[in-house]
Every structure is written in C-alpha cells, then in structure tokens.
Task: structure prediction
Amino acid sequence: MQTAPLNTPSFNGTQYLRKGYDLIWQPNIKRFVFIPLIINFVLLTFASIYAFNLISDWYSSLPIWLETHMVSPDWYIRWTAEALNWFVTSLDWLLWPLIIITVLITVFLLFGFIANWIAAPFNGLLSEAVECHLAGDLESIENLSLTDSFKDIPRLIGREWRKLIYYIPRALICLILFITPISMFAPIIWFLFNGWMSAIQYIDYPNDNHRQPFRKTLSDVKSYRSGPFGFGLFVMLLTMIPIVNILVMPVAVAGATNLWFDHYRK
Result:
C-alpha cells in the first residue's frame, strides 16, 4: 500500500508525467485508458491539420497584406504596415517561430478543452482507478463502471464550465499582451499561463471525484506552486510534440492523480 502524503513545501512535478506513463500500463488500469486515448487521438488529428493550414495561410497571405497596406492613404495604416514589414524582414528568424509556437499552443489548447469536456466522465473514472491502485484497493477498481460516471455527466459539465469561467478572463489578459509593446514576450507568457492551467485542469479530477469544490483545487496548486507548475509546463510541452501528444491526456490524468495522492490527499 502507498505511504501517506508527503507534506513537503516543494517537489519536482515533472516526474509525475513519467509516473503517469507507468501507471496507464498497469493491468488493472489499462481498460480505463482506451476511450480517453481515442478521444485525444481524433481531436489532436483535427487540431494538427487545422494548425498546419492556419500557419500556411498566414505565411502566404502576410506579404500580400503588407504590400497592399504599405501604400494606404491613411498614415497610421501605412506606418503600421511599414513597421510590421521592417519587423518581419529584420527579425524573420524570430517572428515565425513565435507565431508557430503561439498557434500550436492556442489550437492544441482549444482542442484540448473540447477533448476534456467530451472525455470528462472517462478521465474521472481513470483518475479514480489510479487512486484505488495507489491505495492498494484493487477490489474497488473492479467495481468501477462507466454507468456510474454517466450519471455524473451534469455535474462534470458544470465542473468543466467552472474551469472555463476561471480561464477565460485570464486568457484574455494574456492575449491582449500580443498587441502591446511587450508582444515579443507574449508567446512565453501565454505558454506559462497555459502550463499553470493544465496543472489545474488535471489535478482537479481527483478532487472532483471526492466532491471537493473547485476552490480547493486552486488552493492546492497555490500551496505548492513549483510542483504543479512544473507538471503543467511539461504537459504543455508534450502536447506540442506530434505522436507523443496522443498519450498526453491519459498520462496527465494518471500523473496528476499520483501527484494529488502524494501531496494533497487529506
């Protein structure tokens, strides 16, 4: 049986992705992984195609847009186009990587939200199975069923909606940074913020299974910021890697549950 939670003020959150990967292959857990895996695969495939097309369209249309607006009769439009043209010409090596990273983060995050809404009942069940496994309660794993999870769908949708309410105003603030003088740093801030949100998203599953309010999840991740933050950043990084990102959702659910079990279980 697993030992009691470790009440340390800080810990390495990235290690829990490796632990999550090991957990999803356990014989008594594997059957709970299949549906989240399929949902993630389908949506990530669409996300990858959409991101590729979006980047291609931007890359081909930007020179045409600049050429058209650099001769605009309106001085402010002309000045903006000339400034952007200088930026594109001088810092092309920096601009397009930042655009690509920003698009990938935004698109994968958007599809990730959709995936989490669809997979919420299955992710909750996977989290519960992982917790039972860590506690050595193998009998309870055998009694878990999708029927019970489907009964909780209204509550689970409400929970995902609560996360969305938390996310949207903060995301808008980050997005506004893209049109400010510090826009060069906006993709980095955007990545860091979404890493934080990923930690909240996945650590909330075990708390929700125990009918704990969302504010407890926020309190938990804020109490040991470095651990959850490292975990969330690693999730975001893996989400941007093709093929690897297919496994991210179930691995993150299992890893976050292990993290919660070690540090936040009361």
